[in-house]
Structures
1.
Amino acid sequence: MRGQLQTLSAILVLTVAGVVQADDAGAPEKITYAKDVAPILNAHCVQCHREGEVAPMSLRTYAEVRP
């Protein structure tokens, strides 16, 4: 489980680092759960991290992911 958490953390850190881009005025884009994080979890994690599957906790919604 620790390895899975480290992998998830690494994916999120790398994604957020790649998503933060300056706009024309030089201000960074606002990162949101729905726009930036949820698509990653849905593509790579939710298959196992949902009720009734092998992973220990569900990661389908913001409320489930936030803790």
Note: The mean pLDDT is 81.
2.
Amino acid sequence: MNYTGKLVTLRAVEENDLPLLQFLLNNAATASTTGGDALPVSFAAQQEWFANMRKDKTVLRLMVESNEDRQAVGTVTLTGWDWKNRTAELNIKLRPEKCGKGLGTDALMTLLEAAFDHLDLACVAMCYLSYNAASAALAKKLGFVQEGVLRQRIYKFGQRHDLVVTSLTAQDYAVQPWCRRSQNG
């Protein structure tokens, strides 16, 4: 099932998405805003990852596709899925030239709607590097509550950086002005 927002549709990852996923992993601008690996990823490694991706039941990875031109512009994930406690952590990566156009906001709103209204999660976490002002603004806009700071958790650019931990519960989600459930009563 695809999840459709106002600007984007979230859909399954297909093999023809691998070049974009490889680009997002290897792109310096994208890597500078995320906490993951800074190691180069080959296309062969990307293909191997794709072949094994569906075996991991703790990750839901979806492509972000623009509703305007049906082109994939990035990816969103729910990782660290805890089935017993119904929690996960969300992540997003967009092509740098697509940032600042509302696509990321719509993608996360759509992912959160899926998480809470279709997948019955109780809480979704969002972590971001303390210097990532765009992610901080997005978390605030979506109603995430800061839970704490993991000090010097991420090493990038020859320095250690803090990781800000935020979360949104199902109850928090239901009262957000952007939540379709709250708009429908």
Note: The chain has a mean pLDDT of 92.
